[in-house]
Amino acid sequence: MKAASVGRTAPSQDNRRRTYGLFKQLKKALLERALGAELSDHLGYEKGDPAGHGTGNNRNGHSGKTVLTEDAAVNLAVPRDRKGTFEPAIVPKRRARAGSTVSTTASCPSMRAA
Predict the structure, then answer these.
(1) What residues does each domain of the chain span?
(2) I need a labelling partner for 33 at 20 to 30 A (CA). Which of 17, 40, 87, 99 fits?
(3) How does pLDDT run across 8-19, given as a tens digit for each residue?
């Protein structure tokens, strides 16, 4: 009887670990995509767009950054621009915590449903 109860709890712990890992991967992908969109907005053109050639400020790779979110530490590839003028809003420079846009929007009275 004891062995059967141990067998039942192990899969649920394993499922929790998998779910946690999946959410962490999704959070990483979402943050990196948002950072890429912020850089596109900053530069004024999308990645691969010929309009960016000769502008003097292009994409210049990524730098690694570990960001603390509400539930986990996430390793991100933060995009850079050649001139170093890109200041991301979602994951600000020299800060270890990501901004919580969900809690900010929920607390703003003008954003609430009437």
Answers:
(1) 2-111
(2) 17
(3) 556 688 888 888
